[in-house]
Design a protein that fits this description.
Blueprint (H helix, E strand, L loop, with lengths): L1 H19 L27 H8 L2 H6 L8 E8 L2 E8 L3 E5 L5 E5 L2 E8 L4 E11 H5 L3 H11 L2 E7 L2 H5 L5 H14 L10 H22 L3 E10 L1 H12 L3 E7 L6 H12 L10 H11 L5 H7 L12 E2 L15
Parallel strand pairs: 6-7, 6-8, 8-9, 9-10
Antiparallel strand pairs: 1-2, 2-5, 3-4, 5-7
Helix pairs in contact: 8-9, 10-11
Length: 334
């Protein structure tokens, strides 16, 4: 029954998200090979697989306390027969690069809003990754509370605060992804962690699951089943999280058309040539990424970051995949 309920809610959200998700077309200059230097950090002495296990440590993520997640409750209220709790939290430190290429250690800042049906002792959990805090605040509380009440499921929305990319001297989150892809290439596959924003978003999703579970536990509620959803960058992160986090039973990744990077890049090149006026990542630049992923040094990166190479690691038994194929200026239209 829990699986059916979560699947119904995912379908409802997917219909809405498919209409709402937009990929912000923000320009930006890529870091040069000179100023994106190989970071001499302890984990780079490990091989690719060991680096990821060190960074995406599921045992540690599952055991994190509300204090370790830097949870700060800011508001508590009742909407319908649902308890709504809003606060700030952090999934931890992200080693990355500023816009000038200098190394920094960013403490990520997030907000979360969780809807918990009243008078339940055990229920499913749906974690919905929004892009930003604005995406959390703009969804109708009445609508989400109605869903939580009707289906007796806890629903968490979470999103990143703008201070993160602003502190790096960047104009938006897309630029963090943009710099991260170049960092992987320029570091020649030796460092899979520094600047790898997508991997960090996947880790943040697992941390969000732990946060929701801990908050529910504090309210005397046990979580029975976990479902996750997200689109665009968070769609990619959802796919990745499903290969690391065995708590996830159902997933709805969407707005992401590069489950196989090399083939997707080849298609973009065929359809657009060197330049796509609607995209941040231009085909001429993505070709460099494709060639790197097919190289000997790029192989471990592809095995870690390409969903097509991680199919045997997927945990959920049910997927509801959404997209935007009718829109030429959005993800699938690229």
């Amino acid at each position: 029954m829990n699986r059916k309920i979560l699947a119904i809610i995912l379908v409802v959200l997917v219909i809405g998200v498919s209409c709402l998700i937009m990929f912000s077309m923000i320009g930006g200059k890529a870091p040069t090979e000179a100023n994106v230097v190989f970071s001499e950090l302890s984990y780079v002495r490990l091989n690719a697989s060991e680096q990821v296990k060190w960074y995406y440590n599921m045992s540690k993520i599952k055991s994190m306390s509300l204090n370790e997640l830097c949870w700060s409750e800011l508001e508590r209220k009742q909407v319908r027969d649902v308890l709504v709790i809003y606060g700030r939290w952090s999934p931890g430190i992200f080693p990355t690069y500023c816009s000038n290429g200098s190394l920094t250690f960013l403490k990520l800042s997030y907000v979360a809003k969780i809807f918990i049906p009243i008078d339940v002792s055990r229920c499913p959990l749906l974690v919905y990754a929004r892009h930003t805090e604005h995406g959390v605040s703009t969804l109708s509380e009445e609508l989400i509370a109605k869903m939580a009440e009707r289906f007796r499921v806890a629903i968490m929305l979470y999103g990143e605060m703008s201070v993160d990319w602003e502190s790096l001297g960047m104009s938006g989150r897309n630029i963090m992804v943009y710099y991260g892809s170049h960092a992987l290439v320029f570091n020649d596959g030796r460092d899979l962690i520094t600047g790898n924003f997508i991997l960090t978003l996947a880790k943040a999703m697992s941390c969000a699951i732990t946060l929701a579970q801990k908050i529910c536990e504090k309210e005397g509620i046990e979580i029975s089943t976990v479902a996750v959803t997200g689109g665009s960058k968070e769609g990619y992160a959802t796919w990745l999280a499903c290969t690391f986090d065995d708590r996830i039973s159902l997933a709805s990744p969407g707005g992401f058309q590069m489950e196989n990077h090399t083939e997707a890049i080849e298609q973009a090149e065929k359809q657009w040539g060197c330049y796509n006026p609607n995209a941040v990542f231009q085909p001429i630049e993505m070709i460099k990424l494709k060639n790197f992923l097919l190289s000997e040094n790029g192989k471990p990166v592809r095995e870690t970051m390409d969903i097509c190479c991680r199919l045997d690691k997927l945990y959920p038994s049910l997927y509801i995949i959404f997209g935007d194929v009718a829109s030429h200026d959005l993800h699938d239209g690229h």
